């Protein structure tokens, strides 16, 4: 009966209490009080997993996804710092592999549990109850629950990240090439006015991307998603932007012009300003993820290319770009604005020689970048990044507060 009430309660949006996910705290305290972690058989874990699974079926509701990302990360942190295993109770290597196949990537949380069990707690402010803070011997159902919860956290994280990719992808196609001014517009007004209008049009596309980034940042922060996870989302998104823009640049000669370099450079400045606005806490290393497109654009707009040596280009101007990528952009470059030329024929010849040597040494000849859609964190990373959580001072929802079976939740730390 109490399990039914718990499931009914956490199926609702319980919100947050002083920045703490109420549902996660309620679930954790109930499981701890009922000693569910220590039993060989129980159905409560499956019911909780099913509840989360049903809640995230609406894949495009980012607010709901962020809510459950916050709750699942909080609950996983509490489990990580509470559950300990002995050899017999832990998952065998064979069992661990089959579970990983069923639930996606399973991190080293369980394998690391002996070390985490030895880690001293930081007093009763951390987790657990009213001064009786303890670790519990976790049985197989509890360990499986932790793995399933990890798989759900990864899934929710990936859904939010991929939703953001889908929203900005159409705009990225508009950002890589400067809009061309028509002959009619040149007749109606001066060339400078037409160019100014074109620049405003292009920047508008970049500003639309910035607006989307800001919307996602606000949703994640409103749901108290740990800043560690937020920064991972945006770092991967900026890596995606880097891949899409850079590959488009190297696949389309019309994009490798001097004026197009100027347009993209102005757009990248909008993203740099967003990173400053978001702060390093939430943006992480996002700006650094754009290094390929930034250096490629730097090459397009630099003056006196014929005077540049290969050493200057590879060491100073474009150190992150491969010879294959530099050769591609150098041979496709054209100047529609000033009529300037690309690098010297000597530099081009040197690049060809180096590429031949690379092919003889089995170095990849591909000049395109690959998008990385892996999960860029582990359970231990989350545990180390999140601060202490006091679960006893959380405001209880009315459904729980008014039921005599949950009086243990009413106790608060003095």
From TrEMBL:
InterPro entries: Dilute_dom, MyosinXI_CBD, Vascular_dev_regulator. Residues 46-357 form the Dilute domain. GO terms for biological process: actin filament organization. PROSITE patterns: DILUTE. This is Dilute domain-containing protein.
